[in-house]
Amino acid sequence: MSAVIQDLVNRPYEAGFVTAIESETAPRGLSEDTIRLISAKKKEPAWLLEFRLDAYRHWLTMTEPKWPNVHYPAIDFQDIIYYAAPKPKKLKSIDEVDPELMRTFEKLGVPMNERAALAGVAVDVIFDSVSVATTYKQKLAEVGIIFCSISEAVADHPDLVRKYLGSVVPTGDNYYAALNSAVFTDGSFCFIPKGVKCPMDLSTYFRINTQDSGQFERTLIVAEEGASVSYLEGCTAPKFDTNQLHAAVVELVAMDNADIKYSTVQNWYAGDENGKGGIFNFVTKRGLCKGANSKISWTQVETGSAITWKYPSCVLLGDNSIGEFYSVALTNHYQQADTGTKMVHIGRNTRSRIISKGISAGHSNNSYRGLVKVGAKADNARNFSQCDSMLIGSTCGANTFPYIQVQNKTAQVEHEASTSKIGEDQLFYFASRGIGAEEAVSMIINGFCKDVFQQLPMEFAVEATKLLGVKLEGSVG
Amino acid sequence: MVQSPFMSALLDGPPASASGTAWFDRLRAQALERANSVPLPTTREEEWRFTDLSPLTRLSFHPATDAVDIGAEAAHALLFPEAHARLVFVDGVLSSALSKLPASAGLHVLDLRQALSEHGSLLERHLGQSVTNESNVFAALNTAFLRHAAVVVVDPGCEVSAPVHVLHVATRREQAHAVYPRTLLIAGKASRCSLIEDFVALGEANYFSAPVSEIVLDADACVSHARLQREAADAFQLGSCSVKQAAGSRYELVNVALGARLSRLDIAVRHDGQGCDTTMAGLALIDRRQLADTHSSVDHAHAQGKLRQLYKCVVGGAAHAVFNGKILVREGAQQTDAGQSCRGLLLSDRARIDAKPQLEIFADDVKCAHGAAIGQLDPDETFYLQTRGLSNERARNLLTYAFAAEVIERIPVATLRSALAKIVLERTQEAA
Question: Model confidence over B390-399: pLDDT tens digits?
Answer without folding.
Answer: 998 889 999 9
